[in-house]
Amino acid sequence: MNISNSSTVKAAALVLSALASYSVTAKAEPWYKQSMYKGQYTELNTCTQTYPSYWQDPNPKFTKMWEGQTISNVPTTLWDEGIFALSDKYPRELVIEPKKNQPWYDAKFDALFDESTPQREKSKLAKEYIKLVYAYGLEGNIAGKGRVASRDFDTCENKYRPWFHIPFQTYDPLSGREYIRGLTREAPVTFSVQDSSGTDASTMWAVGFYNATAAYTLGEVWQEDGTAKLPKKGVRFHEGAVIIKPLFNTSTIAQIPVLAGLPSWNANISDPAYCECKVAPGSKDKDGNERKECNFIEESKQCKRNSQAWDDVKLLQFDVAVRDDRAKDTGWVYGTFVADGQRKAKVKNPWEKMTWLGLMWGNDTPAKGHLAFNTPVNPREKGFSEAVINWSLVDELNKYSGSAMTRQVGHLGCNNRLNGPADNTNSSCMSCHGTASLPDSERNTPLMISQFGEQTPECAVPLINSDTLGKDRGGDTGEIHDGINFAQIDSLYFANTGAGESFNIRVDGKSLAQPHYDFAPDKKEWISLDYSMQLSISLQQWLEWVENQQLDPNDHVLKDFRGRN
To answer: Residues of the signal sequence (predicted)?
Structure first.
């Protein structure tokens, strides 16, 4: 199949060459004066202090949120390493960049989404596609003209294009943004390693960035007055939206050698072994019942932050997400880069020591009655229909890992679907994010992974001589719930959810938990947030704050699952 012509190849090569330095190229006028921004901006700065920038932000208009807490996430008057500011001046009119700025939309990449394209050609296209997105995300955000490496991704005044953060990842004392880089705590990760410990209990810290097209959709929810407008129907990002997310890990280079030479950031984090709060015996909630979760005062005291007690966090993973209508079943393309510091030891730029792990635009949904655990058959040899994996990097990552396969750094997801080291071995990038929904009136959302609640486990295989028990890819045994068998749960979690469409909760006349929205009591479907777990979690925290304002600080608790965002 002829998938390109010489002029297209030449143009793409020129783009790659121009982006390779990741430095800001000279422009005839600043980005905010360019016509695509429709006169919405008059300066580079996109940080307004409309929302808290980090947990325990000392701005007087936010301090009630931290009432009674032990303060450990506020810089001193002598702090001189920079303080994170939230980029929150979202465009209120849709911004669409010209395609020349986003070269992965070139027609040559149409073949990537064509199932008839040979795997070798598809792999070449996937590699080029994801590297173009990565270069786009680094432009103006890392060391170059007018920047110093110590403030990489300080986005308030990006000279190339604006990038934005999502607000209200600040209310939760355990996961809320820290003040140096704006990192939020994500899931604990235990790796199988080769050093004397054998296992490495670590924590991921991350921060997401949204380009102007994606930020317009955020602005439809997050208002200029510092409040949220809850969507009454599914949110849908526009084509051209790009979201990037560097994820940092607390492990040492001795434990994970591929981290050598990668960007490392000082951050005001809690215990790298993943601090968990313990409720004081005999504690009661506001209704007089025994309290099962710590309140915010207890969490802030037991899981204090510190920028000096632990080593810098190191870049392990870098995720990208692109709205692309050529992904006909989902509307999204997800990609992941992972640290490759050993093979790239001689590369000077630390951000270039990342290597692409894979690209996916669908879940390769199992046929009815089949399991995601072993469908499709032998994807390493035969490939996926809706994904490409860089097996060379997988092997490199696992070479430096221990023998526990599903805890190796290159563990991937269910049946080797795309998932990075920070992610769950029973899922995939898209199976998780496809569940993103507006919290209902009881603050519930669909489980992003079925193992996180009382549901039949996904990516599991039945045990011999058992009608109810199975073992998932991580090696854990689980049981069937509500009559939904293992193939049926996989048909829900590994379905291809369309952009802006509700996560399906029904199979063969059976159903997972339904939402309850006070404003639409008859609604039986979850309101989609279009693959944005960060939007779902931030709205969860916002809704908790709205409710908790009426309560004593000792009754401030967070009901949501504190996992990947």
So the answer is: 1-28
